[in-house]
Amino acid sequence: MSLYESLKWVLAAVISHRSRTLLTAVGIAIGIMSVTLLMAIGEGVQQYVLNSFSQFGARIIAINPGLKETHGVGSLIATVRPLTIDDAVALKHIPGVDLVVPVVQGSGAVKYQNRQRSGMILGVGPDMSEAWGFKLAQGAFFSGGMDAAHSTAVLGYTMRKELFGEDNSLGQHIRVGGQRFRVIGSIEKKGQMLGIDMDDVIYIGASKGLQLFNRESLMEIDVTFTENTRLGDIEKRIEGMINDRHGRLDVTLTSQDDMLVSMNKILSILKVSVAALGGISLLVGSVGILAIMITTVRERTAEIGLLRAIGAEKGLIRWLFLGEAIVLAMMGGVLGLLLLLFITFVLHIFIPQLPITINIYFMLLAMLISAIIGLISGVAPAERAANLDPIQALHEE
Fold first, then answer.
1. Which residues of 195-222 are buried (b: 16+ CB within 10 A; e: fewer)?
2. Residue 332 neighbours by CB distance under 10 Å
3. Buried b (16+ CB within 10 A) or exposed e, 337-355
4. Whole-angstrom Cα distance, residue 194 to residue 210?
5. Domain ranges within the chain, ordered by starting residue
6. pLDDT digit of tens for each residue in the chain (397 aa)?
7. In this structure, what are the phi and psi dihedrals at residue 63, rounded to the nearest 5 degrees?
8. Which residues lie closer than 8 Å to 52 by C-beta, 6 or more apart?
9. Over the range 379-393, which residues count as b (16 or more CB within 10 Å of their CB) and which as e?
């Protein structure tokens, strides 16, 4: 039997039972779709996180009040010393430190004439735009020292558009949390960053922010370091300085690498969990193929006997039934990928912010998995068909 005749025999066998074939393919398709969709979402989320972090630059460390881990009774009852503007100024003098950004966050009403908008208010230092890579659309950013408490403000893209429309905002006076500020600049459009709309923000000086929110401690201090400085070295210097100023190490340092490691752990757990669910669907589909192939061998015993009688070798019979199982699984794989594309299209319409990255590698891997499932599921039935006694098989007619 030639290769063409073998393929024709396999396809005819699959098509002859359309309903049964479709039901079996659906079982494989759901599993393939689940696993591939998970990979696509995981890849999309990972790229989204990388892009979000990279907007702040690769050489940046966030310093937050309080230790991530505490040890012993004494550390549990010890109070955390506030993270202050003076700490930020001291950090600026550490060898290897490039830029320092004190940050205090709050929210409130922003008013201009008869227009009002509620949004995020960030008190930051004058190095913020350079350290975070935020370009100015117009005007200038804050000048002077980090402890300057000027009543000036810089607007995010959405905040400026909602308050001023197409009018010029530079030099205009607005009220932030009931206090009067003069607009000196606006930031270019940045979009969403880790779920936060960075365009619907107003930036004021960190010292002014502490006064406005009536707080003693900064929420965070961001430090960027020079290219020729190792991350481990700069972290030790920062910890040493904090320890000298506070009497103990009572802050948590988080680098971009730490954030990515934590995010990768979360994504790995998510991938394993959903992959297990997809694996159950694949297992059900493979059992379905196994059951159908066993039934097929039973129904076509006479046909197998006839093939053996006209000289077909055991190997040919074995590969014919293995081919049928593989084709069934591959049909499930194709159906699963079509289902994936449809679901991705629907998600893109209804949840456009959900990051999904479909890689051709994932699709090829899905088809390979389908073929392997068909091969494994078809081994036992194919072996059974190949070992049938030709004479007894013909008597089944």
1. eebbbbbbbbbbbbbbbbbeeebbbbbb
2. 31
3. bebbeeebeeeeeeeeeeb
4. 25
5. 3-52+261-395, 81-249
6. 566 666 776 677 667 777 777 877 787 788 788 778 877 877 777 777 666 665 555 688 889 998 765 444 444 444 568 899 999 999 999 999 999 999 999 988 999 988 999 889 999 999 998 888 888 999 999 888 888 878 999 999 999 999 998 899 999 999 998 899 999 999 998 877 656 788 899 999 999 999 999 998 999 999 999 888 888 899 999 999 999 999 888 898 988 777 777 777 777 777 677 667 767 767 777 777 777 777 777 766 666 666 666 666 777 777 777 787 888 888 888 888 898 889 888 988 888 877 787 778 777 777 787 778 777 777 777 677 667 665 565 555 5
7. -110, 120
8. 193, 194
9. bebbebbbebeeeeb
User: What is the chain's length?
Assistant: 397
Angle between helices 256-299 and 314-350 (to 10 degrees): 140
Round to whole Å and give the CA distance between 378 and 383: 8
Residue with tokens 């506030």: 82
Q: Is 72 exposed, middle or buried (0-12, 13-18, 19+ CB in 10 A)?
A: exposed
- Of 143, 345, 323, 127, whose CA–CA distance to 222 is shortest? 127
Angle at CA of residue 219, ends 135 and 127, nearest 5°: 30
Residue owning tokens 């003076």 = 86
- Token reading at 281: 């669907």
Q: From CA 102, how far away is CA 220, in angstroms rounded?
A: 6
Please check whether residue 279 is in contact with residue 288, taking contact to mean a CB–CB distance below 8 angstroms.
no
- Residue 53: closest CA among 132, 158, 156: 132
Structure tokens belonging to residue 303: 């046909």
Q: What are phi and psi of 139, to 5 degrees?
A: 75, -150
